[in-house]
Design goal:
Largest interface: A-B, 22 and 27 residues
Largest sheet of chain A: none
Strand order of the largest sheet of chain B: 1-3-2-6-8-7-14-15-11-9-10
Shape of chain A: elongated
Oligomer: heterodimer
Shape of chain B: globular
Order of helices and strands of chain A: HH
Distance between the termini of chain A: 48 Å
Structural class of chain B: alpha/beta
Helix content of chain A: 55-70%
Number of domains of chain A: 1
Radius of gyration of chain B: 20 Å
């Protein structure tokens, strides 16, 4: 059975203890996609060093 | 006295009251008339009432006895997230609509100690979590320069009250730009001091590591005096601005900017050069990480503040704040750590920039006040959410904690433009001194 991004978001939301109505998911999904895109970009630029550096 | 007292800077009001050239009762009546004349601006959630009148009466008696106090009898409006003893403090929310704190916030205590009159509680974005100030419970705040437009937020009511002559000055808070953005969009001075310089005790939190308390005023001198009172620091010795090194921030973070706003930044740089400051360009590539770093940090921290309510009573929030808080509940610990690593590097990069300059100069916001309800700004190559655009140039200094001042610097298309002066940690004296130079030539 295919799992959509919306389904995945609903599952993550339930796991976080949120009560997400269908209208909440509609609003949250685009915000969540934007968030994921920004965070992936940040992760790519700021890779935590595996050992302590100078800072 | 020819100038209307409602247009006078706070420092001039304080002087006139001390000299008994102005009666505190007449002053308050003049402010109240301005508030009554513009209810559509929604500047206040709780306008000044009987308690303010009692304070005015006491102040009048103290002035008659020749008592002193830097702000004796001066009415200051308070953003409605600072606790005020016995006066409703809603934080712009439905959830706290009936909260009557038992004690004042530390900043309110300091104002009262200086003799100020606590003059009403101003409108804000719900729980200070947004920059439009379109509050679903207490009314959509409107820009006094053009009421079809947003005043910005979250301290929008405070900016309206200052610009529309409803008080002598106002308190605000700033987590991503919430003092500086409305100051820039409405046309007043906004100071976000160094993180921790002004106490936050008794302020309802939004993001624990990003929150700052500060002021919205008519002049830089007003901001300077309020900073002394709120921080408890002595008046700084006079700063010589000639020869100071100014870095104009360039690079992709400042490239997307309305031409009229950009022109005012260039005018500010030229004015500073004419005033004898040494102006050069600086590029800080790490500033490009600001939007994502601020987003992850604030989403997680705000959702921690609201952890219980957002799960138990999500319908008690307006739509935009509910979505932000729900999203924040999904931020992973790993993402938060990555954001804090980025934040450390951003701070280091700013520290390095300050090896070569004494202050930074950039626009406060890349756009002038948007029409209420507008969602995106269109640049040549892309669209940007207006909320994101408004905090793009202010939030680096919440992440770093550095002092930042927004000063009015003319207009673009008939709307106010603010430029931002940023300094080293605890270097408010130089930030304010450079701000004063800009203020002087911007008024010419």
């Amino acid at each position: 059975m295919p799992v959509t991004e919306r389904d995945r978001l609903a599952a993550v939301g339930r796991a976080a203890g949120l009560r997400l109505a269908s209208s909440d998911l509609d609003r949250l999904l685009p915000a969540w996609k934007r968030y994921i895109a920004l965070v992936e970009e940040l992760r790519a630029q700021v890779v935590p060093e595996p050992i302590h550096g100078d800072d | 006295m020819t100038e209307s007292p409602t247009a006078m800077p706070m420092t001039a009001v304080a002087r006139a009251l001390r000299a008994r050239a102005l009666s505190p009762l007449e002053l308050v009546d003049a402010y109240l008339a301005r508030i009554d004349a513009a209810p559509e601006l929604r500047a206040f959630i709780t306008p000044p009432g009987a308690a303010a009148r009692r304070q005015v009466q006491r102040a009048a008696e103290r002035i008659a006895r020749r008592e002193t106090g830097a702000l004796l009898g001066v009415p200051i409006a308070i953003k409605d997230l600072f606790a005020t003893r016995g006066v409703r403090t809603t934080v712009g929310s439905k959830i706290l609509r009936d909260w009557q704190p038992g004690a004042d916030a530390a900043v309110v205590t300091r104002l009262r100690k200086a003799g100020a009159i606590v003059f009403g509680k101003t409108n804000l974005h719900e729980f200070a979590y947004g920059v439009s100030n379109a509050n679903p419970w207490w009314g959509v705040a409107r820009n006094p320069v053009d009421p079809r437009r947003s005043p910005g937020g979250s301290s929008g009511g405070s900016a309206i009250a200052v610009v529309a002559g409803m008080c002598a000055a106002a308190l605000g808070s700033d987590t991503g730009g919430s003092i500086r953005i409305p100051a820039a969009l409405c046309g007043c001075v906004g100071l976000k001091p160094t993180r921790g310089a002004v106490p936050l005790q008794g302020a309802f939190p939004l993001g624990w590591s990003l929150d700052h308390a500060g002021s919205l005023t008519r002049t830089v001198a007003d901001a300077s005096l309020l900073f002394q009172i709120l921080s408890g620091r002595p008046a700084p010795s006079r700063v010589r601005t000639r020869g100071l090194r100014v870095g104009v921030v360039r690079g992709s973070i400042t490239e997307r900017i309305q031409p009229g706003v950009g022109a005012r930044v260039e005018a500010a740089a030229r004015g500073l050069r004419r005033a004898g400051l040494r102006v050069r360009d600086v590029t800080i590539p790490e500033l490009d990480w600001t939007v994502a770093t601020q987003l992850v940090t604030l989403r997680a921290e705000a959702s921690a503040v609201h952890a219980r309510w957002i799960r138990q009573r999500p319908r008690s929030y307006g739509t935009d704040v509910r979505v932000r808080l729900q999203l924040g509940a999904l931020v992973s610990g790993v993402d938060y750590v990555v954001a804090q690593r980025a934040r450390d590097r951003l701070r280091d990069a700013l520290d390095r920039a300050f090896d070569a300059v004494d202050v930074l100069l950039l626009a406060t916001t890349p756009i002038t006040a948007p029409v209420i309800g507008e969602r995106v700004v269109r640049w040549r190559a892309a669209e940007e959410p207006i909320d994101g655009a408004l905090v793009r140039l202010t939030s680096p200094f919440n992440l770093s904690g550095l002092p930042a001042l927004s000063v009015p610097c003319g207009e673009a298309g008939g709307l106010p433009v603010g430029v931002q002066v940023v300094g080293r940690w605890n270097d408010e004296p130089r930030v304010l001194a450079v701000g004063q130079v800009i203020e002087e030539f911007a008024q010419e």
